[in-house]
Amino acid sequence: MKPFFVGLALTAPTVAVLLYFSLQGRQQITYEQQEFHAKQDVDDAKFDADFAAGWDGKSIAIPKKTAIADASKKLDSMIAAHAAANAENVQDVKDLRDSMEIASGEKKPDGKSAAETAALKKELGRGGAP
Fold first, then answer.
1. More confident residue, 106 or 47
2. pLDDT: is 81 or 54 the higher one?
3. Closest by alpha carbon to 70, among 28, 90, 42, 98?
4. What separation, in Å, do the N-terminal and C-terminal C-alpha atoms of the chain show?
C-alpha cells in the first residue's frame, strides 16, 4: 500500500498543475469571445447608423449616437480587463515556476527565511525527507 500512497502523493501536484492550466485556457477563450461580441456590437451600431442615414424614402429608427460610444467603451473596458487578467496569469506562472524550482532545490529562495522556505516546500507537497 505504501507505493500506492507515494505514487498518489507524487501525481497529485502534477494533476493540480494540469487542471490549473486547462482552466486558464478556458478563461482565455471566454475573454476572446466576449471581445468578439463587443467588437460585433460596435460594428452593428456603426452599420445601423450609416444605413439609416442612407435609406431612401422610408423612415427607420436611427440608433442613438451614444450607442456607438457605449459599445466602444464596453469594448475598451473588456480589452483592458483581458490585458490585466493576462498579466496576472503570466505572473502566476512565473511564481509557480519559481516555487517549483525552489522546492526541487534548483534555485535558492531570494530573501526568504528558512520557515518560509519550509512552508513553501510543504505547500508544494515536498515537506518531508524521502
1. 47
2. 81
3. 42
4. 16
Instruction: Please report which helix (H) or strand (E) contains residue 98, including its range.
Output: helix 65-104
Please tell me which residue, 8 or 114, carries the higher pLDDT value: 8
- Contact of 110 with 99, CB cutoff 8 Å: no
Average pLDDT for residues 45-58, to the nearest whole number?
Answer: 69
Contact 109, 120 (CB under 8 A): yes
Contact in structure between 75 and 35 (CB atoms under 8 Å): yes
- Region of 84 (left: φ > 0; alpha: ψ -120 to 50; beta: rest) is alpha
DSSP per position, 74-90: HHHHHHHHHHHHHHHHH
